[in-house]
Amino acid sequence: MSTPQARKVSDSETLMTHRALPEDANPAGNVHGGVILKHIDLAGAVCAMRHARMSVVTASIDRMEFKAPVHVGELMLLYASVNRVGKQSMEIGVRVVVENLMTGELRHAVSAYLTFVAIGADKKPATAPGLILETPTHHRRHREAEMRRQLRIEERKRERQAQESEHIFTENA
After folding, report:
1. Which domains does the chain have, with CATH numbers?
2. What is the DSSP letter of 22?
3. How many other C-beta atoms lie within 10 A of the C-beta of residue 82?
4. Reported pTM
């Protein structure tokens, strides 16, 4: 199978919206984090699919950071962009901005980074197209994504070592 041709960041940038409704919220009128997460995952998946032009699955979610509440009646604007592409995986950054539809006020509510894996027609991981960085912002996001990737690799290594040492400890008990 040939390697897909690299694509520009701007080719897959995605904006999705969702108006927060009463069924999305708790009794205080704040939208549940899980509802916001669902929309973040959807926006990230659409962005990853637009880049890969194939199915994707969510592999991980990093740094889900809630900065401000989302209230019933407000509009969530979910901006998704590809930050980094590996062989089969893609890091997608999603920023949620909330708009008060009565006043026009905007506020940054949530930021998250998600990793998706491209899935071929055979339902197995497939090669994702490379990424063409176009702006200084794209280059900065790519550098930051590389740092997050290194941290994830180190964290997995530490977890594996801890689990192995725990396994040895329980065997000797």
Report:
1. 7-171 (3.10.129.10)
2. G
3. 33
4. 0.88
